[in-house]
Predict the 3D structure of the following.
Amino acid sequence: MASYRYIAFDVETPNRYNDRMSAIGITVVEDGRIVGEHYTPVNPETFFDDFNTRLTGLDQDAVRGAPTFPELWQQIAPVFESGLLVAHNAVFDLGVLKKCLRDYEIPWRRYARYLCTVQMGRRLLPGIGHRLNEMCCYYNIPLSHHHAGSDSRACAEILLRYFRSGADPKQFIRTYSLI
């Protein structure tokens, strides 16, 4: 566990297409503790569905003046490159990242190694629900659900709980194609 730096992240999206971010939260874990957090709304340069706005509280007014993904990527790419990516239901968050990188024609890695705390939980704690809010209730972790900053912190906290129970991250590492 100590040999890795973990970058837990969560994205919110503005609409049903899930091809743009309206917010991102990043929580950095090193040596078994949280050492950094970052949250920002993101201007998705597209429309918001009512459903997504009700879910996240984000709309055009909330992201006015926020960085676009290309502007933000310049800031967060070094963080993403500094450790193993982690997300709760990682395929969703990685999929949004992939679409943003592709649509804005931003070159990055061809593949990303990652951990998914949902998949880990299904193997480590079978027989219980593994949605983020359910895991936060199970572990008594505070959560403001569908706020990317809170969700990324909750993901990091869940990951740390798994490690404290003896989980070996090496058996859960997967690879996601970003091309």
Q: What stands out?
A: The mean pLDDT is 96. The helical segments are 50-56, 60-63, 69-80, 90-103, 117-124, 132-139, 148-164. The longest helix spans residues 148-164. Residues 19 and 96 are 5 Å apart (CA to CA).
